[in-house]
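User: Teach me something about this protein's shape.
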Amino acid sequence: MDDKGTQLPRSRAALERLDRAVQRLEGAAGQAHGDLFLAEDLRRARDDYARLDHTTRLVEARLDGVIGRLKFVLEE
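Assistant: First, the predicted structure itself:
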């Protein structure tokens, strides 16, 4: 009877530890899932930045050309 009496509390304690471990794993999995979303957001932001940087350089070059032509016209 002693063995059975001590096994039940041990089993309950083991189940509680298992439950806590599963909860920690679920929490970690949720955080990892969130990290994947953050990584995707960061990738999209970097892609947007690259496109905007390219567009800015094109506009800058065009404006420099227009300014150069205006200076030429005004000097005549």
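Now, about its shape. The chain has a mean pLDDT of 87. Helices lie at 2-75. If you'd like, I can walk through any region in more detail.
User: That's plenty for now, thanks!
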